[in-house]
Design a protein that fits this description.
The longest helix has 22 residues. This protein is elongated. The protein has 7 helices and no strands. The protein is mostly helical. The chain folds into 2 domains: 88 residues, Helicase, Ruva Protein, domain 3 (Orthogonal Bundle); 55 residues, no CATH class. The termini are far apart. The protein is 61% helix and 0% strand.
Length: 148
């Protein structure tokens, strides 16, 4: 999974090119650094953690500062998707986060025109279709004068 994330970084910037050979060098360095343990489960957990940290540090060293957050986010979201982190992964919320669809069928209220851009209102109309956000636009309209 880590290697396939790495090779997709060329989408962010064409200069990010990683070979399988260089990946395997750091992969085996991580294995050497992992703590020896007689308990198999503890050893596996330590190996996984050490491999993630070593690969992240190796890659992050060569990334521009603005791209480090992208890589870390991609890694986190992928681990969430695979159920390897305790955080819940919601496919609908992830699709909204990545694509931010706009729903243009509801006009922006006059009370929000002063400070809320039209595209933000249209994004909110898509957001309220997700579980847990149903009342967001209504609350935004009611609370806007006091909060913003």
């Amino acid at each position: 999974m880590l290697y396939f994330l790495l090779i997709k970084l060329c989408i962010v910037d064409h200069m990010y090119q990683y070979s399988l050979e260089s990946f395997s060098v750091y992969f085996f360095k991580a294995i050497e650094r992992a703590e020896e343990n007689d308990d198999e489960n503890a050893r596996v957990l330590d190996l996984v953690q050490q491999i993630r940290i070593t690969i992240y540090q190796w890659v992050a060293r060569g990334l521009f500062e603005r791209h480090k957050q992208i890589f870390l986010s991609l890694l986190t979201f992928r681990l969430m998707q695979k159920g390897q982190l305790e955080a819940e992964y919601n496919q609908a919320q992830m699709q909204f986060l990545v694509y931010c669809p706009l729903t243009t069928d509801v006009p922006r209220p006059a009370s929000l025109k002063e400070w809320l851009p039209e595209t933000a209102w249209y994004a909110i109309q898509s957001l309220i279709k997700l579980d847990g956000f149903e009342q967001f636009s209504t609350h935004l309209e009611k609370e806007a004068p006091r909060r913003f």
